[in-house]
Write a structure and sequence with these properties.
The chain is an alpha/beta fold. About 35% of the residues lie in helices and about 20% in strands. The strands form 2 sheets. A 5-stranded mixed sheet has the order 1-4-3-2-8, covered by helices on one side. The chain has a 3-stranded antiparallel sheet with strand order 5-6-7. A hairpin with a 2-residue loop joins β6 and β7. α1 runs parallel beside α7, α3 packs antiparallel against α4 and α5 runs antiparallel to α6. The chain starts with about 40 loop residues before the first strand and ends with a strand. The model has no long low-confidence stretch (mean pLDDT about 85).
């Protein structure tokens, strides 16, 4: 028969009150297996690297950190402890606004006339001229029927679809219209002029939205925003190397 023995140390100032002793039986829980460190990778808006540095620059070695600038990808990538496999990376990206993506300006997005009419009607708030919006909605609603009607007439007269197509586009769609929408996420609205390009293939009609002004504004905006972020980062962390790629 085995005995369980307990060593109990009584404090010097013990006053004789009962002492509760808890005896636990069984095996001690196994220690957890050690885990590898995790890489810290974040992606946010274009100002994410600057915001991170503003709060934690004193915790890092600037000489072993870098920022790579990609104007084509509209991004700034901050890398901390660059030779460490478990380095921290903060990627800031200048993203197109939800509105620009939904309209599909300069993206090659194709619209059926009736669908574009409905879309314009539901997004009237982004039109600079509300009366212009109403006219576009009405014109687009009847655009495909007008094209088909004129194609039939063309076949009867001389079979020339190309000339007829040009007449239809010129007579049914305005040369351009103006939108007031944000070009980039989290930025203010900008006024841009937009043209509607029509593609007629037999009885199928598809429309796309094109804006040379938006392209110019995006390029200018992109470079101004990135340059502004670079200058601000230099002020917060002057010893971090900044590399254009």
């Amino acid at each position: 028969m085995s005995e369980n023995k307990i060593n109990l140390v009584v404090p010097k100032d013990y006053n004789g009150r009962p002492i509760e002793v808890v005896l636990r039986e069984g095996e001690a829980p196994a220690a957890l297996d050690p885990k590898e460190p995790e890489r810290v990778v974040f992606e946010g808006t274009i100002d994410a690297p600057l915001r991170w540095l503003e709060k934690r620059v004193e915790l890092i070695n600037q000489k072993s950190s870098n920022i790579t600038v990609s104007r084509n990808n509209m991004s700034l990538l901050l890398t901390i402890d660059e030779t460490n496999y478990y380095r921290t990376q903060i990627n800031g990206v200048l993203c197109f606004s939800k509105e620009m993506l939904e309209f599909g300006v300069n993206t090659g997005k194709e619209w059926e006339p009736i669908k574009l009419s409905q879309f314009f009607k539901m997004h009237r708030a982004f039109f600079k001229d509300k009366a212009e919006n109403m006219t576009l909605v009405s014109t687009l609603k009847n655009f495909k029927a007008k094209v088909n009607q004129d194609i039939e007439r063309s076949k009867e007269e001389n079979g020339s679809k190309v000339d007829n197509y040009s007449q239809v586009v010129d007579s049914n769609l305005p040369k351009s219209f103006k939108l007031n929408i944000p070009l980039f996420k989290s930025f203010a609205c900008e006024e841009i002029e937009v043209e509607i390009y029509a593609d007629v293939d037999g009885r199928d009609v598809s429309l796309s939205l094109v804006s040379a002004g938006a392209n110019e504004a995006i390029e200018e905006y992109k470079n101004n925003v990135i340059d502004g972020q670079i200058e601000a980062i230099k002020g917060v962390a002057p010893d971090i190397v900044i590399i254009e790629v």
